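Shipment paperwork, digital attachment
Item: protein structure file
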Amino acid sequence: MRLETLDDWFRSHVLEVDSRQQPRWRRGLLFCLRLAYAVSRDVARGHLTLRAMSLVYTTLLSMVPLLAVSFSVLKAFGVHNQIEPALAGFLAPLGSRGEEITTRVIDFVENIQVGVLGALGLLLLLYTVIALLQKVERAFNETWRVQRPRGFAQRFSDYLSVLLVGPVLIFAALGITASVLGSDFVRSLGTVAPLGALINLATRLVPYVLVIAAFTFVYLFVPNTRVRPLSALVGALVAGVLWQSSGLVFASVIAGSANYTAIYSAFATLIVFMIWLYLSWLILLIGSSIAYYHQHPRRLLLLGDAPELSPRLRERAALGVMSCVAQAHYARETPPDDEALAARLHMPADALQPVVDALREAGLLRALEQEGEPSGYLPGTPPEETPAVEVLAAVRRHGERAGLDLASLALPPALDSLLGRRETAAAEPLAGLTVRDLTERGPGAPVREVTEARSRASQGA
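Attachment content:
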């Protein structure tokens, strides 16, 4: 079977099938196949691989400063000696090369003297660490199709909490787990035949559980959007199992191979280390992509990259957004945010974002901000005084600027007059209607029905 034929078969039998008409087991199978196809497509197109490669470079520059900051924080709690075992565990798939890298990195960290660095050196040290966190956030935002990064104030507080609280929580969890598993009580239970097998199994599963818990926290915290815990857990479950399993394969296939030493000589350790970093970041981003598609299953049906609404959809979506916001305003409900608007209109949030930006730029929407980020939208002007045609005009002129607008477009006078009359005729059905009128029949009511209702009312009067 040729590749084109296989692709056509997959589209017709998997991607284009209406899963709502299928049994539950078939819906689950279709979702898993679509999810695997979407993630594989992202990897094949380089969306995830390029971000993983860029994070490898940033990690090489930031690893020692990051560990130095963590070392300073953990030293205040007396648990700084836990860094070396944790780093050795992360580099365990590299075999003897991992032990060598761990020893050298820890030597670098211990030899850093903050008092000698001075104010400028300390600022550069912190900047390198923050640059890594910012790069990681940008990679996850791109995976989640988030266009707005965190504000400066929120970024400062979140990054500071990661640097100060994160290491303490991580190594505290590792220490508690090691203490519980190594306690005399657990050892005594291990002598009992049934419980001994269960404890042995639990000991083997603990690394998986800790990795899955860490990945879940990353998927919940890092993207600058609201991530559902279940979606984060699903992505972390797949990524955690994949990461732990790939470590075993990496240790036996790549790290244990003598070819790298024969080819790269003294650089073999660095090359193998970079490959493992790349694989780790790629798996982490794959898990983030799985979490995204699990939370937004409609995106599995969109085969393109970033969906872009047609002019017709933009105009209708703009009227729908204003109707939803006005309806929530009059009902005294919680102002809808980006995710709520996307759910109400059955549109991807990233595709709807340019429409919301156009309405905000025109002053028709006002954003409620929480820690520098929009947390909901209110009408920018009274809905009963906002003409519906102004909503359409806002999205149609969005993106125009000096030198790239109607005034700079040279058209024959006859054609310009004809297009002007066409726009006037197209706006006639909305003449006299306001945004408040669009909420009378609900946010999903067609504009034509609202217009006909007003026409019948005026004729009856």
